[in-house]
Structure formats: structure tokens, C-alpha cells
């Protein structure tokens, strides 16, 4: 894993790193050593941005960073790569240290499995060893999401995703099992099999269980379409270019599971991942086919590129049979959600009002914003079929994220349920967030779970 442990350490002996709001700069500057005041004046520093302060011997004595607000999660997001090699000691209030430390760590991330990158030579030090360890574990969960999504599809097919889930289970003494290929039909997961059968990489249902059975049960479901050609309704080249990220939902639930297990939340965790490649061959499922789902509902295929909801519906139906405390699914499901909210704000759907309130509050607290979208039931009419119980894709281009959510809702009857429709990809580089795979809503969900169950 390309980041982490070395870039945040417990200690108090480094070069002081002072972060202050720009409006406090003049007050802070009063009483500083004369040579530093002169240096600030010479460099034209007015309280905004970064300045390195020399000591009497000319060596680096202190780093000063002026920011608009200390509440910014990403105020240290690009700092590790801007500072000279060395150890930098940061002090401050607890919430500030949590935000700053996590932003620093995530800013050190680079995906270097296929290309060498310049190593980070600056380290951040904090006095509290427990805080340091917690921040490392949260950052490692995000890094796992990024790594899995960034991995090219030739190395991230269903069998590779299975290896990642198995490795995670072994690391935390969890139980791993899977159904592969024809076993999906034998065990009644027909839509997962139908979507994945055209690929030489056999479809799978991955199943990870961890925790005390006496604890509240939380089930995570992640869409694991390792590459999406669109099937027979094939995507154009531009639409296919980044479809390695279509297993982003699976990456999200594995990253979230790692946070839960590494920080030992008292929950009974289950993770279900339908892992497939939506490919084209002579046995690919077709527009007009009618598939029977695990729940027994029949689905007419309007568009083979609406495959994510097909693999999810069997997994959700299985999750619902155990009536856990909650089911949370993540999926790179619709472009419509991106049109509604853009690429950097994840939308979610739920009818569980208490869950929605808790999620919103948690996202705000940890600077991982999420946005609730409506499960507008009148749009359920768009899922009607003349020959089956429902269609997999509404005929109208409008409200596509809502109709997708309503489709999934048909398969969860007994359990409070949240469905995240995510991008899983940064299209622009921002502090702490390089272009490529990204975790959206994972920290918000973890915070919500921790507030409920810790």
C-alpha cells in the first residue's frame, strides 16, 4: 500500500507546524522574533498560504500555514509534498488534529503499482499515539478503496476481487466464502449469473462475515462489475474508457469493512459483493430477455447496460432474508446521479428517516458530505413491463437515479436500507484527492456506525 504508516507518527520533537486562520495572523505575528518578522515582511507574507521561517542559524525553524478556516478537512492535503524532508510537529484542538492528520495522510497517497512516484519525505508528528493509530486506520480504508478502483481491469476481474476480499478476511480473522459460475444457478442467484456469464472470468458472489453474532448486524452490499462494456447495448468508446471503476461499490464496502474491523466496531458484519464482468459473447444476456431473480420477481431486460441493478438485486434479496439492523449498498449505478449532484457529491436514497438524519450529521462532522435524494414512488410506474413483473431500466431518460433506486427497493422489504449512487472517481486533482479512484461517503457511514454502536 503506497501510503501511510511512516507519514504520520507519534511524537513532539519535529519542526513546529503552525496552522492559523488568516484573520489571526497579525495577532500571531506580535511578539515573534525580529528576524522572523523581517522575513515575513521581505517575502510579502500576509497570512495566506505557506511560509518557511528560518532560525538564527538559517536552518528551518518553523512552518506557518495561513488558511481561511481551520474547519477545512483538506487544509494539509497537499502539504506533505510541498515541505522539505523532515519531521513536523502539529498541535491543536482534537477536531482540528483529526481533520488535519487525515488530510495529510490522504495527501501522501499515490497509486504506484505500475509507475514509480516520488516518495514523500516529510512526516507529521502528533503527541497522541492513539489518535495517530486511528487516523492511520481510517486512511488505510480510503486507500484500499482507491487502490482497488485504480487497478486496471486486466488485474481486477472477479477472481482478483475475490482475492482482495479473501485477503482482507484473513487479515482480520473473518470468514470468507464465495459462489462461482454455475454454483450461482444452483444456489439461486440467477441475475448475477446472467450478467456475468458472457465473460471468460466467471461471475461470483463474495461473502465476508466478521464479528460477534450477538452484536447488531450490519450488512454491506457492493456492486462489483469489474468492467462494463455495456453488454450487447455496448457503450461508445468514451463511455467505456473508465469502466474499470464500475466495481467501485465493491471497493467502497471493502474499504468500509476494513475500517470497521481494524477499529473493532462492536457489530456483526456481513459483506456481499456480486462480482462480474459485463462482456459480449454468444451467450450474453439480451434486450428483451426475461430473467427470474432470487426473490422470484421476473425482470424484462430493457437495456443490458443497466446491469448493476441486476447483480445487486440478488445480493440485496439475500441480505434482506437475515433482517439485519441495516443494509447499506454502494454502487456506481447511474449517470443521472452525477447529472443531479456532480461528480464529487454522492447521493443516497433511503426511507429510513433516522438513518438519513444520522448520515447527514455524520457526513457534516467528518467533512465527507452526502446528499439524500428522493425515492419518489410515483416514478415506480416507469418500471412496469407488459411481460414481466418489472423492467430493469425505465423508458424515460429523466429521474434515472430515482428509478434505479426504486428498482432496488423492490428487493428489500424487511430492513432499513440505504443505497449510495457514487462516482468512485476524482476527475480533477484537489488537495488530498488525486485524479483516479476515490471513496465517497465511506467515512460518513463509518462515523454514523460508530456513533450508533460504539
Structural features:
about 450 residues, alpha/beta, Leucine Aminopeptidase, subunit E, domain 1, Aminopeptidase, 2 domains, nine-stranded mixed sheet, six-stranded mixed sheet, about 35% helix
CATH superfamily of the largest domain: Zn peptidases
CATH class of the largest domain: Alpha Beta
Number of domains: 2
Chain-averaged pLDDT? 96
Enumerate the spans where pLDDT stays under 50 for 5 or more consecutive residues.
none
Gyration radius, in Å: 24 Å
Tell me what portion of residues adopts beta-strand conformation.
Answer: 15-25%
Number of helices: 14
Number of strands: 20
Largest sheet: 9 strands, mixed
Taking the alpha carbons of the first and last residues, their distance comes to 28 Å
| Gross CATH architecture of the largest domain | 3-Layer(aba) Sandwich
User: Structural class of the helix and strand makeup?
Assistant: alpha/beta
Shape: elongated
CATH topology of the largest domain: Aminopeptidase
Helical content (DSSP H or I, runs of 4+): 25-40%
Amino acid at each position: 500500500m503506497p501510503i501511510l504508516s511512516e507519514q504520520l507518527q507519534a511524537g513532539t520533537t519535529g519542526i513546529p507546524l503552525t496552522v492559523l486562520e488568516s484573520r489571526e495572523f497579525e495577532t500571531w505575528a506580535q511578539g515573534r522574533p525580529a528576524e522572523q518578522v523581517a522575513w515575513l515582511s521581505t517575502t510579502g507574507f500576509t497570512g495566506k498560504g505557506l511560509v518557511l521561517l528560518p532560525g538564527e542559524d538559517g536552518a528551518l525553524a518553523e512552518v506557518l500555514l495561513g488558511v481561511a478556516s481551520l474547519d477545512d478537512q483538506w487544509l494539509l492535503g497537499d502539504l506533505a509534498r510541498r515541505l522539505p524532508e523532515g519531521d513536523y510537529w502539529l498541535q491543536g484542538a482534537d477536531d482540528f488534529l483529526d481533520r488535519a492528520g487525515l488530510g495529510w495522510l490522504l495527501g501522501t497517497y499515490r497509486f504506484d503499482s505500475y509507475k514509480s512516484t516520488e516518495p514523500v519525505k516529510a512526516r507529521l508528528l502528533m503527541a497522541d499515539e492513539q489518535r495517530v493509530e486511528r487516523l492511520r486506520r481510517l486512511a488505510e480504508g480510503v486507500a484500499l478503496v482507491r487502490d482497488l478502483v485504480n487497478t486496471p481491469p486486466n488485474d481486477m476481474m472477479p477472481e482478483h476481487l475475490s482475492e482482495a476480499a479473501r485477503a482482507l478476511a484473513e487479515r482480520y480473522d473473518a470468514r470468507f466464502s464465495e459462489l462461482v459460475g454455475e454454483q450461482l444457478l444452483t444456489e439461486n442467484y440467477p441475475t448475477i449469473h446472467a450478467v456475468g456469464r458472457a465473460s471468460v472470468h466467471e461471475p461470483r458472489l463474495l461473502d465476508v462475515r466478521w464479528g460477534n453474532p450477538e452484536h447488531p448486524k450490519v450488512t454491506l452490499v457492493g456492486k462489483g462489475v469489474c468492467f462494463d462494456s455495456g453488454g450487447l447495448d455496448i457503450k461508445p468508446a468514451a463511455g467505456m474508457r473508465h469502466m474499470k471503476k464500475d466495481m467501485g461499490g465493491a471497493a467502497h464496502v471493502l474499504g468500509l469493512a476494513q475500517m470497521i474491523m481494524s477499529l473493532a466496531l462492536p457489530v456483526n458484519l456481513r459483506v456481499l459483493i456480486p462480482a462480474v464482468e459485463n462482456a459480449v459473447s454468444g451467450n450474453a444476456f439480451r434486450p428483451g430477455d426475461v430473467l427470474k431473480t432470487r426473490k422470484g420477481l421476473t425482470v424484462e431486460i430493457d437495456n443490458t447496460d443497466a446491469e448493476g441493478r441486476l447483480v445487486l438485486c440478488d445480493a440485496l434479496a439475500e441480505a434482506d432474508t437475515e433482517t439485519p439492523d441495516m443494509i447499506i449498498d454502494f454502487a456506481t449505478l447511474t449517470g443521472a446521479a452525477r447529472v443531479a449532484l456532480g461528480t464529487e457529491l454522492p447521493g443516497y436514497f433511503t426511507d429510513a428517516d433516522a438513518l438519513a438524519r444520522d448520515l447527514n450529521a455524520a457526513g457534516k462532522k467528518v467533512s465527507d458530505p452526502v446528499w439524500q435524494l428522493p425515492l419518489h414512488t410515483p416514478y415506480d410506474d416507469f418500471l412496469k413491463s407488459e411481460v414481466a413483473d418489472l423492467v430493469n431500466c425505465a423508458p424515460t431518460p429523466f429521474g434515472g437515479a430515482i428509478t434505479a433506486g426504486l428498482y432496488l427497493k423492490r428487493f428489500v422489504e424487511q430492513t432499513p436500507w440505504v443505497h449510495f449512487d457514487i462516482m468512485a472517481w476524482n476527475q480533477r486533482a484537489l488537495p488530498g484527492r488525486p485524479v483516479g479512484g476515490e471513496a465517497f461517503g465511506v467515512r460518513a457511514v463509518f462515523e454514523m456506525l460508530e456513533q450508533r454502536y460504539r
